[in-house]
Amino acid sequence: MKTKQQTEFEKKVLDQFMSGKNLFGKEGAFAPMLKNVIEKALEAEMESHLDQQQRGNGNKRNGKGKKTIKSGFGTFDIETPQDRQSNFAPELVKKRQTILADNLSDKIIGLYGLGMSYRDISSHIEEMYDTNISHTVLSQITDKIIPDVKAWQNRPLEPLYCIVWLDAMHYKVKVDGRITHKALYNILGINKEGRKEILGMYISESEGANFWLQVLTDLNNRGLEDILIACTDNLKGFTDAILSVFPKAQVQLCIVHQIRNSLKYIASKDQKEFMRDLKLVYRATSKEVAEDALIDLEQKWGDKYPVVIESWQRNWEQLSQYFQYTEPIRKIIYTTNAVEGFHRQVRKVTKTKGAFTNDMALLKLVYLATKNIEKKWTSPLHNWSLTIQQLYIKFGERIPLILNTNSSGASPRGIETTDRV
Q1: InterPro entries of this UniProt entry (predicted)?
Q2: Where are the alpha helices (DSSP H) in 115-158?
Q3: Is residue 379, in this structure, part of any structural domain at all?
Q4: What is the pTM of this model?
């Protein structure tokens, strides 16, 4: 037969459950049970700690302390046993630990990686788990990923990436109390299996060929030996920086960047007609046809816009590399759209941030955003098996194409196994 106390307890549990309240929070029906289990576990740890050797050295119990624990089940107070020599180090609730469950830390880091502010995260955690966490503690929790960020930045790379896009994003970062504009350099690569990978992220005061040289040198030091095709914007000195580290790389300048830069110097009344003529150059069926169209462009517009025409002629060798390939590969390499698409996804996460408190605050958030984005990169690029064969024909032994032969003798993807082409 149930006692009155049991009936009241069951009613409290049911009422809190139906109303959506946290059963383990401070006023939760199960809170005393959880508190009791944790305290008994700590007592058992203390009993194990005070073994014969500890007692022989004069160590013994020395009362109890109090600690407020925040967890995925809510916030509650516990009593922690203490020893006279203060060398008791419990495993369940460690010294100075206030966040009990790692899963709560994981939730906080996950929310931060989605671009939520500390204020929003704090409100969400309080609403969902009846736990109030300060901005300072939230910052300390997100700082736990700093070793992961550094390890990721310094991880070894594959010796070969078939296609690499290099571009920079720009952010505001506080330096000594002042807001400074900084460039975040990102390198997106395609390995020989056709899979995307962010090879690295680097921060500098501004975008320039000198810093790109440092970036490329770091990639080389981390194991990257060869790049087949490097796709970049039209930054002055960029091509020389790439070739100084990867002399065999084929550099393709971004056609879209070139067009944007050209239109800056074309009068608005001429832009529509100029673009119609320019399309005959970059959409030509072959390099020879494109060069004929470029001559026609010069004859028509050279006197009026000599700077624009001279820019196309000066950069033509790097602008026209994509004509060597079929249409599917041309679409991949003639612009930096691949890395800019990655940037658009990152900006969805970072757009709520006015200015970052420091460089690492920026790197933490972009790193988390990158890991979320990379989860979607589960398959090789479309028609990669055909693309890799064209690259092999073009670059020969620089790309160790290895065919995967199944029991029927078919080679489904052209990815690594044992039979070298």
Answers
A1: Transposase_mutator
A2: 118-129, 135-142, 146-153
A3: no
A4: 0.70
